[in-house]
Write a structure and sequence with these properties.
This protein has 158 residues and is mostly helical. It contains four helices and two strands, in the order ααααββ. The chain has a single domain, classed as Methane Monooxygenase Hydroxylase, Chain G, domain 1 (Up-down Bundle).
Length: 158
């Protein structure tokens, strides 16, 4: 392996920052696709997200290898920051920029996860109506009889 230099680490962090910016754009596109319930766009976004996330995962492994090569027995952010400072103290601000972008990506992903969960609940409820299954609260039929849930609202009988 080649010697670890300031330029190698700086390039590595810049690539990670670029990946996070790409991921933020994909998360925004994903949110719009979830709101529009566009399955094709969601599939495209998921494929692109997978590629970016694989890059970030590989990058994290690379950082761990660099820390291990420095002679450290354990991998930690403190050791990574020490390595950065040793190479160039200015790299710490680039690292902090990357960490902040990663945090924003995580927050946006959680928002999309909540939106996805809400969409799934709506879909499951609609599916239960179509199947004539569902809620236990009694409803009244056209004849005034009480029946449970969506039993009498089967799509085939509508």
């Amino acid at each position: 392996m080649t010697e670890l230099t300031k330029e190698i680490v700086k390039n590595h962090l810049r690539q990670d920052i670029s990946a996070c910016q790409t991921l933020l754009g994909l998360l925004d596109t994903e949110r719009q696709a979830l709101k529009a319930r566009d399955p094709q766009q969601l599939e495209d976004v998921i494929q692109n997200k997978t590629t970016v996330l694989q890059h970030l995962e590989q990058s994290a492994r690379q950082r761990g290898q660099w820390v291990a090569l420095s002679g450290a027995k354990q991998k930690s952010e403190t050791l990574w920051l020490g390595l950065l400072t040793k190479l160039d103290p200015a790299l710490e601000s680039t690292w902090n920029e990357f960490k902040e972008l990663l945090k924003v990506c995580q927050e946006q992903n959680e928002i999309n996860g909540k939106l996805l969960a809400r969409n799934q609940q709506v879909f499951e409820r609609l599916l239960a109506i179509v199947r004539g299954q569902g809620e236990n609260s009694p409803l009244y039929t056209a004849r005034g009889n009480r029946r449970g849930g969506y039993d009498f609202q089967k799509l085939g009988e509508a």
